[in-house]
Structure formats: C-alpha cells, structure tokens
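User: Structure please.
Assistant: Input sequence and predicted structure:
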Amino acid sequence: MKITKPKRIPYAEYKKIYSKVPRITVEVFLVKDKKILLTKRTITPAKGKWHTPGGAVLMGEKLDATVKRVAKEELGVDIKIEKMVDVIEYSSFHKEYFGQDVTLAFLCSMKKPNQAIVLDDGASDFEFFETLPKNMIPEQRKSLKEKLGFE
C-alpha cells in the first residue's frame, strides 16, 4: 500500500466515519518548569473546560509527526517529544460528541523554552498550572495525576 502525504478529510465524511469507529488521537502534555500547559476550549466537546492540546492522527501520519503538528497548529510552538505516558479512553464526551476517542498522551517540552504561545481558534486562553484546575476534562485530570504526579 502506498502512503500519501497526510491530509484532512471533509467534515461530513469525518463525522460519518467516526460515528461508527473509534478515532485515534494524541494529547500534548507540555511541561515547563514542573507546570503543565492547559488551554481553555472554545469548541465542543468540553467547551469552556481546561484541557491538554490534542488532535486526530491523519491517515499516513506517524505518531511523532502528529504530536509535533498538533503542538504547532494549536500552540504555535516546536516541541521535543520525551515519551509516551498514557493511553486515555474518553467516556465524558459521548453525551455531547458523536465519536469515541482513544488518545495516546505524550510528555513534551518546548525546543526553545521562551517561545511565545499562539493559540488557534479552538482555545481562548492558556496557562501553565502547578496544581490542576477543577474545570478540566476528567480523563485528562486522572492521567496527569497518575502518570505525571500533578495534583
């Protein structure tokens, strides 16, 4: 099978496919100075909640390329992947979203520690947290606590 350059599919097709099968996604657990970067969502699911940036793996895309693309698209930064830290199965989205996400979470750091964060349209704010906020996606909270020791 020949693999072509990864590309997005039209939303109607995306929704049709991922209403029937799980979607593989990645999460960027970006840590700086022992703090985790969270962004505030402006889109569903989990609109208004703090979350770790993430996105879908595109057909033909390697996982490390996906993590780097998501960090660049959602935060405007270049990252170094330290390691994969968790597999997250979301259940809190099912009431407000059409699909089932299975996410691979990666611990990352910024290539240049003083890079400016530039958010995409999916987030309204960002902050580096030492202590996790209450208003965040429950599965991500659990993962950050269990795998990285955040409280």
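The helical segments are 11-18, 63-75, 138-148.
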